[in-house]
Design goal:
This protein has 279 residues and is α+β, with helices and mostly antiparallel strands. The protein has helices spanning 10-93, 113-116, 170-175, 261-264; strands at 95-105, 126-139, 149-168, 181-199, 205-220, 229-244, 247-258, 267-278. It folds into two domains: 31-92; 94-278, Porin (Beta Barrel). It is built from four helices and eight strands; from the N terminus they run αβαββαββββαβ. Keywords: Coiled coil.
Length: 279
């Protein structure tokens, strides 16, 4: 038999090489399979992460959509509450009132021809007044500037009585030798229009002020220049309290200035109370 240079025959080499190749073949396939499994697992994990992110996004959108109706309901409730508050303030902002009290002239009208024939007998400088009017709501929040106050327009009509004396009348003195007597009443009728600022932040208790208002006076008897109509202005302050639903009571004080000095010496004042009904 022929031998190789290293003393091994071809058959011997085959016996050694074949088991080696078989061992390599048996060892490497599991490694290749393991690498393939790892790659597939990584892809699966990545897919799961993407799916989880997608689910999280859908959950967030679902939660946002679920909150939207609640927010819409809350916004709607706030709007309804605001509308109801505005409607309530408007319904109760207008008011019809009746007032009365004490009034006093700065100086009496004594000594005038038509009041006491110059005898100074009709010298009362104080008296009483009754009147009425209404408040009309212009803004319940000072046109958006202040929620704690409202602006109103007040229109009023007021009768004042300063006294009366039984004395000879001016006409009878001029026309007859024996003058007839009669009561000479000192009265005044006032029509007024004023802006009113009412402070509403204390609920049922609401003070107010009139910074300046217009007065138109009609006096009886006429003054010495035979004036019966006069113009002036007033300032005032007061407070009111709601005692039941729209029923209100209040106190009222005002100072008046007139243009004609011949019958009031330019000034007089009033103080009293009033009863009002909101509408």
């Amino acid at each position: 038999m022929k031998q190789s240079h290293n003393g091994r025959t071809p058959k011997t080499r085959a016996v050694v090489i074949i088991p080696f190749l078989m061992s390599i073949t048996l060892f490497f396939p599991p490694i290749t399979s393991a690498e393939q499994s790892t790659s597939a697992l990584e892809k699966r994990v990545q897919q799961m992460e993407e799916e989880l992110q997608r689910l999280r996004g859908e959950l967030m959108r679902t939660q946002a959509e679920a909150r939207d109706p609640e927010q819409q309901v809350e916004q709607l409730e706030e709007r309804v509450t605001k509308v109801e508050r505005i409607k309530t303030s408007q319904d109760e902002g207008h008011m019809l009132f009746f007032r009365g009290g004490y009034t006093e002239l700065n100086d009496p009208r004594t000594g005038q021809v038509l009041t006491d024939l110059g005898t100074s007998a009709n010298n009362d400088d104080n008296g009483w007044y009754v009147g009425g009017g209404f408040d009309f709501l212009l803004s319940d929040d000072v046109w958006g500037l202040w929620d704690g106050a409202s602006i109103l327009a007040e229109l009023g009509l007021e009768y004042k009585h300063f006294g009366s004396r039984s004395q000879p009348t001016a006409l009878s003195v001029l026309a007859k030798p024996s003058p007839e007597t009669g009561n000479t009443e000192l009265t005044m009728l006032t029509v007024s229009a004023s802006p009113k600022i009412k402070f509403t932040q204390w609920g049922k208790f609401q003070p107010w002020i009139i910074p300046a208002g217009l007065d138109i006076h009609v006096i009886s008897p006429p003054s010495d220049p035979v004036t019966v109509l006069d113009i002036g202005f007033q300032v005032g302050a007061g407070a009111e309290y709601t005692i039941w639903k729209a029923l209100k009571v209040g106190v009222d004080g005002r100072w008046h200035w007139t243009d004609d000095q011949t019958f009031t010496d330019n000034q007089f004042w009033t103080v009293g109370g009033y009863l009002g009904v909101g509408f």
